[in-house]
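$ ./design --mode recover --in tokens.txt
reading tokens...
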């Protein structure tokens, strides 16, 4: 398994675990797992392209680069949903319904990211 494939595998695992945490009522862990799934998917893409992917700031640059590369400006908006869930891990201001709505956006983002082909 390549490094990028490992990142993708962990992304899928975290996404599934986020739903388990959500169903168990652990909104804080669910929020962070949705963020983690996004971060791992971005790392997979960045690793394949030789882009830095070790910091939060790198993730914003990756999203910008991907939006420019693909012409899909929606991924910037969808990424904000994931980033909001990451913030919720620290602030815990969201209720279950808000997290569910943002989780749906993260699902759309991951689908788009998974469909981006390597250059």
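writing sequence...
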């Amino acid at each position: 398994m390549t490094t990028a494939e490992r990142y993708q595998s962990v992304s899928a695992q975290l996404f599934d675990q986020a739903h388990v945490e959500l169903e168990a009522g652990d909104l804080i862990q669910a929020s962070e797992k949705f963020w983690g799934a996004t971060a791992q998917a971005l790392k997979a893409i960045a690793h394949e392209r030789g882009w830095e992917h070790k910091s939060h700031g790198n993730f914003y640059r990756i999203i910008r680069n991907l939006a420019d590369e693909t012409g899909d400006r929606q991924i910037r908006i969808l990424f904000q949903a994931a980033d909001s869930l990451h913030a919720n891990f620290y602030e815990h201001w969201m209720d279950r319904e808000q997290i569910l709505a943002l989780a749906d956006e993260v699902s759309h983002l991951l689908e788009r990211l998974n469909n981006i082909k390597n250059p």
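exit 0
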